[in-house]
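Appendix B, record 7
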Amino acid sequence: MSTRWRSQISWATGNTSRSENLADNPQAQLFLIDYAARQRVKIWGEAWDSNCPQHIPRRFEEADVKRLLAERDSRIEELEAALEMLKSARGADG
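Structure tokens (predicted):
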């Protein structure tokens, strides 16, 4: 990682009047996690690493879950209506 990036990537230390960057603390590790895609990149010192999603829990936004559940419920209603039509047609034939 170039010196430029080591001084530009920073984080809060817990002390509100101070922050650090990789140039200040080359032992620091930053974890960049995309929970929805279950991907992680770890940055430390002058190196980085990515790993498999095995230990990254999947996380979904509430709005996305609501939308998907509404789509599912709509599809169930369509299938139940089609099933009722088939049952009615079968009863009329019988």
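Remarks on this record: The radius of gyration is 26 Å. The first strand starts at residue 10 and ends at 12.
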